[in-house]
Amino acid sequence: MLVLGIESSCDETAAAVCSFSDDGSKSLLSSEVASQINVHRLYGGVVPEIAGRAHCEAICGTVSAALSKADKTLDDIDVIGVTSTPGLIGALLVGVSYAKALAYSTGKPLVAVNHIKAHVAANYLCHPNLKPPFTALVVSGGHTSLIDVRTYTDFRRIGRTRDDAAGEAFDKIGRVLGLYYPCGAEMDALAAKGNKNAFRFPSAAIADDTLDFSFSGLKTAALNTINSLKQKNLPVVAEDIAASFTEAFTSSICKKILPAVKHCGYDKIVLAGGVSANSHLRRALSELAQENGYSFYTPPLPLCGDNGAMVAAQAYFEYLEGNISDIYLNAMA
Q: What is the DSSP string of 205-258?
């Protein structure tokens, strides 16, 4: 079965073609991403109106390129999957409208995909032996969630951020340090050079029986530290700020992940989302899993950010469950 996946939830227009066999094997035939980073970098973050217009300009070419690189045509495609929620509503509408038009004109089944589920599904493409149930952590610019993944389509959220997402916090701190949006990769590199004990920032793990996070306090503490140093004419060592902030972030995640795994009762931890590319988080969770006898899975870097392959993977399993959408499918922010 060939699945075309279309993604347009934020600032990247993406499309991919994946092949799924009855024996369970999966192949990524093509994956195209049209990034808008250079446009939004001028504003220090994503401008929704600009993002929507950029998706309109890029989506036809991106889908065509994905089909071409897979050496396939629309006639070869069996299922069309598209991200319908969550995300920026104007951006989502572009992908949903385009996918509906493709499905209507070709007579192909249309499958709506949840963006969070899709991030988790990226792992299936690179870890053939990974199967639910497992505990998943999805960390990105707009989401931070702990999820009980019971089946390929049955997800139960057991923990979340109550305010800012982790990726957003990284971008805000990075911008104050003079880094270019998106700041995740540069913050990662800076943290590797700095002293993680230079500053003591508060934990983002809420101190109660829940599995929730609050990154606003951690972000504010880092911003206040930077502002205080500047007001006192003291040097702001970006490496130390990045290292201390990253240490507080990773330790916060680790503090909640073990109770989450025990709550679910599984022996597998899956990491996904844009911030899963952070080397410090990947290493911390890998070590934690190894120390406690759990298996740990996370995608390669190209599949951490938004992409069409993850949408195609989740669309495949939704299709097998009979979750097919009609022409009245709408986007939901």
A: B-SSSS--B-HHHHHHHHHHHHHHHHHTT----HHHHHHHHHHHHHHHHHHHHH
Q: Tell me how far apart the alpha carbons of residues 322 and 318 are, in angstroms, rounded to a whole number.
A: 6
User: What are the backbone angles phi and psi of residue 279, rounded to the nearest 5°?
Assistant: -65, -35
Comparing CA positions, the residue from 324, 85, 264, 273 lying closest to residue 165 is 273
- The pLDDT tens digits for 247-286 are 999 999 999 999 999 999 999 999 999 999 999 999 999 9
Domains of the chain (ranges; CATH) run: 2-123+304-320 (3.30.420.40), 128-301 (3.30.420.40)
Residue by residue, DSSP assigns 85-137 as ESS-HHHHHHHHHHHHHHHHHHT--EEEEEHHHHHHHHHHHH-TT--SSEEEE
Alpha-carbon distance of 89 to 69, in angstroms, equals 29
In terms of Cα–Cα distance, which of 136, 142, 176 is closest to 275? 142
Give the dihedral of Cα atoms 189, 51, 219, 182; nearest 10 deg: 10
Strands 134-139 and 268-272, bridge-based pairing: parallel
User: Do the beta carbons of residue 246 and residue 278 sit within 8 Å?
Assistant: yes
Mean pLDDT score of the chain: 96
Pairwise CA distance, residues 279 & 33, whole Å: 22
- Rounded Cα–Cα distance for residues 119 and 51 (Å): 20
110 touches 33 (CB < 8 A): no
Of 83, 11, 13, 7, the residue nearest 47 (C-alpha): 11
